[in-house]
Amino acid sequence: MDFVELEAIEGLRWSWNSWPASKTESSALVIPLSVMCTPLMQQAELPILPYDPVVCCHCGAVLNPYARVEYASRIWFCAFCHTKNSFPRSYAGIGETNLPAELFPTYSVVEYAPGRKNASPSANAGMNHNWANGLSSSSLSLSSMVSSSSSLSLGDSRGVGPAFVFVVDTCSAEEELRALKSELLRVLEQLPESALVGLVTFDSMVRVHDTGFSECSRVVLFHGERELSPDQIQQFLRIKHMKQMQLGKTPVIQKQSFLLSVYECEFNITSAVEEIHSSLHVVPGHRPERCTGTAISVALGLLEGCLVNTGSRIMVFTSGPATLGPGVIVDSNLSNAIRTHRDLINGYTPYHGKSCSFYKRVSQRLSDASVVLDLFACSLDQIGAAELKEPVESSGGFMMLGESFESKTFRNCLRHIFTRDEEGHLKMFLDATIQIVTTKDVKICGALGPCVSLQKRNDLVSSNEIGEGGTYMWKSGALTNKTCFAFFFQVNDEQKIEPGSAFFVQFITQYRYGNMRIRKRVTTVARRWVGIRSSEINAGFDQEAAAAMMARLAIHRAEKRYARDIIKWLDDTLIHFASKFGDYVQECASSFRLSSNFSLYPQFMYYLRRSQFIDVFNSCPDETAYFRLMLNREGVVGSLIMIQPTLFQYSFDGPPVPVLLDVRSISPDVILLFDSYFYVVIHYGSKIAQWRKLGYDKDPNHENLRKLLEAPELDAEQLVAERVPAPKLIKCDQHSSQARFLLAKLNPSITQNSTYTDGSDIILTDDLSLQVFIEHLQTLAVQC
User: Fold this and answer.
1) Which of 118, 194, 256, 522 is the most buried (most CB within 10 A)?
2) How large is the angle between the packed helices 174-190 and 262-274, nearest 10 degrees?
3) Of 88, 104, 108, 112, nearest in space to 140 by CA
4) What's the half-sphere exposure (Cβ side, CA atoms, 13 Å) at 453?
5) Angle of CA points 566, 569, 571, to nearest 5°
6) Alpha-carbon dihedral of residues 94, 98, 103, 105, nearest 10 degrees?
7) Where do the H-state alpha helices sit in 249-324?
8) pLDDT at residue 392 above 80?
9) Where does the record place the Sec23/Sec24 helical domain (predicted)?
10) Could you give the 3-state DSSP secondary structure of residue 717?
11) How far apart are CA 218 and CA 222, in angstroms?
12) What per-residue confidence (pLDDT) applies to 145?
């Protein structure tokens, strides 16, 4: 079974593709029943239907290819709850040779993009003539259907667009602000005229810029030390709080002058950005006074008063830690160092607990108002990303930790967020909800990813909560085509399940596109129940998806537990897993074997134990928060690169080849390309480096050397260009100090205690090698 090809069709990776028919048997699998879901994955042939979905009146499932249809009486039976439903009048022409696209057997994923907001199928005039070209004879090609519907799906750009509030730290150096202003002005130039924009600047005070006042520059000041409620913020800004609106209704903006469309305030906000100057006053022995938490709260209060549930972004640009007001990270006295992991473990952090509590309240406000928090931090020191992680992650926001606003990485990140499609609309997927519908023999445990639980319960929700649980619906402020969630399930065996029968799971993702139109993508899939001794269980195990899912579980536990406890849990789980699925003679470690479907999983766990996600040595809290945030939203392929990096070898012998992630792969006459997702290393063997330094690659007689040196650089540039944020590119020679980035991730098969041949690299460590780890695993597994 090719799980990658299946993912390209469904957007899903299952840890187990065949499930045991009882709760007890599923618990014996050791690895939880889970699905890695990328709800908006780019697909080559995605049918876009310009009408609203037909929904089951009982369970809320959307009409899909697994429904049983009686064409003569125009009724359909839900595959999930078996309820009888009538088709709306607009489906009067339905027949075996005239199917709506959602009933095509090959369309497990469809996207609904109604031509106008809140349109129902019965009211959609386009449905009366061949379902607006979405319902057609079976001979109609997908490409013609998509092309005919794409113009209807996006609508026009008139009306209210998404809102952006730029929150700028003016305690930055003047040259840094100059680079930041240049990029902000570029963003403003390219925003649609309907987009709403606001500007907040801060140092020890917060300034909300009045972009509707053209006589002169006018701001409303807030003191940085005060924590104000949303009502107080709106009272000072003289904004009346709006009533909650239903999703899909046209938003009505309260008349004010702090958040206006680009069309109304382009000149004023451009002038305000140009007039931003550094307020950095260096006091010897002290950090700048910076009230980041207050600035975020004020910007959120502005959006809460103007927009509700329409999709907005607060984009914070800062260059240092908060030293004032709510959310403070460290005080301004430089004699007090910013917190480290050891400080967090020992409790020597006077501000951490209060700041986390403050940002937890901010997270709830962000969720209630459908606002995304993005963080762009460019500093050589920590800025408080560990405390800000919860509101950024739970809202689906973007986090970038860099060194300078002048860097190419920052420019590319900001431009990537504001990418536009061929129609000129922003390619943003805002204010998203993900709903899961299952058959009654499956229960939903929870989710791990950039989302929050909406606490909506029904009979399908399990009392065994994992991550964001207690619900069948989750909310995320923003999604991308690569945002991935891990969903967890358990078997509900209150009624006997027959092995061989099918069960169904449906993922319903509703979001606002960049033009604020509502879209809904529906993924419906089926899998089979099998007996516990069935060979289909082993054949259906996806060890890559299982490793990615276990990594998310591990970092979820690591937020409240010590690293040694997480490693012990991972080891215990792996031992039970190996004992369950290994072939061996009791008490005979040398007889232990794992089939190919399971053989890589122990290796993944070995590298996960040693990764920066669990072992935080040599990482600061901000870096750890960033690493874990990225892992918690990345798909299976990207997660595996983070856990077990890739290593390619370039030599004169032929094209590049993958080699073992082992110190033995280092050789003087080869070049290694190492990819750990967060950084890419080009490692030159000592001979290659010497030839390069002597300039042999510039000699026409050594053309092969020039090509050998160019090949890894071209591949590395491609890797860097594909990812946002871009990984750090490091070029180093064998035995140089920068080679530590590679050596730290390699399997230490040769250490200071090993017998090795002259010229071999060694790793100075007391860590177990992969071989010793597997030997210990085998010994313990055969004893269980």
Assistant:
1) 522
2) 170
3) 104
4) 18
5) 110
6) 150
7) 262-274, 292-306
8) yes
9) 542-639
10) helix
11) 13
12) 35
Compute the distance between CA of residue 399 and CA of residue 376 in angstroms, rounded to an integer.
Answer: 6
Contact 641, 611 (CB under 8 A): no
How many residues can be counted in the chain?
784
Query: Could you report the per-residue pLDDT of 708-740, keeping only the tens digit for each?
Result: 999 999 999 999 988 999 999 999 999 999 999
| Tokens, residue 604 | 């993944």
What is the rounded CA–CA span in Å between residue 269 and residue 244? Answer: 28
The predicted pLDDT at position 241 comes to: 54
pLDDT higher than 90, residue 250: no
- The pLDDT of residue 758: 59
Residues 702-728, buried b or exposed e (16+ Cβ, 10 A)? eeebeebbebbeebbeebbeebbbbbe
3-class DSSP assignment, residue 241: coil
- Structure-token pair, residue 572: 């215990």
Each residue of 112-146: pLDDT tens digit?
A: 999 744 333 333 333 333 454 344 333 333 333 33
Geometric angle at alpha carbon 488, from 612 and 629, rounded to 5°: 30
Which amino acid appears at position 33 of this protein? L
DSSP labels for 343-387? HHHHT--TTHHHHHHHHHHHHHHHHHHTEEEEEEEE-SS--SHHH
For 46, residues 6+ apart whose C-beta sits below 8 A from its C-beta are 109, 110, 111, 146
Residue 105: CB atoms within 10 Å: 8
Q: For 263-284, write each residue's pLDDT tens digit.
A: 999 999 999 999 999 998 888 9
In whole angstroms, what is the distance from residue 252 CA to residue 53 CA?
A: 26
Tell me how far apart the terminal alpha carbons of the chain are, to the nearest angstrom: 30
**pLDDT for position 641:** 97
Q: How far apart are CA 591 and CA 593, in angstroms?
A: 7
Q: Give the position of tokens 């928060």.
A: 625
Residue 18 amino acid letter: S
Q: What's the one-letter identity of residue 450?
A: P
Place of tokens 């809904």: 520
Q: What share of the chain has pLDDT > 70, as a percent?
A: 91
The predicted-structure confidence for 686-702, as pLDDT tens digits, reads as follows 999 999 999 998 999 99
What is the pLDDT averaged over residues 68-92? 93
Q: In the predicted model, what is the mean pLDDT of residues 568-586?
A: 95
Contacts 24+ apart (CB under 8 A), 455-464: 460/436, 462/489, 462/490, 462/492, 464/490
Q: How far apart are CA 49 and CA 614, in angstroms?
A: 44
Sort strands 518-530 and 502-512 into parallel, antiparallel or unpaired.
antiparallel
From residue 80, alpha-carbon distances to 120, 521, 737 in Å are 22, 18, 59
Rounded Cα–Cα distance for residues 735 and 449 (Å): 39
Give me the mean pLDDT over the 635-645 stretch. Answer: 97
Residue 182, Cβ density class (10 Å: 0-12 exposed, 13-18 middle, ≥19 buried): middle
- Which residue type, as a one-letter code, is found at position 743? L
**Is the full-model pTM beyond 0.70?**
yes
553 burial level (CB within 10 Å; 0-12, 13-18, 19+): buried
Crossing angle of helices 174-190 and 408-417, in 10° steps, is 30
**3-state SS track over 526-550:** EEEEECCCCHHHHHCECHHHHHHHH
- Residue 322's Cα: distance from chain center in Å? 26
Amino acid at 8: A
- Cβ neighbourhood burial of 777 (10 Å; 0-12, 13-18, 19+): buried
pLDDT-based confidence at 764, cuts 50/70/90? confident
Percent of the chain at pLDDT > 90 equals: 79
Distance CA 660, CA 603 (A): 12
pLDDT of residue 756: 62
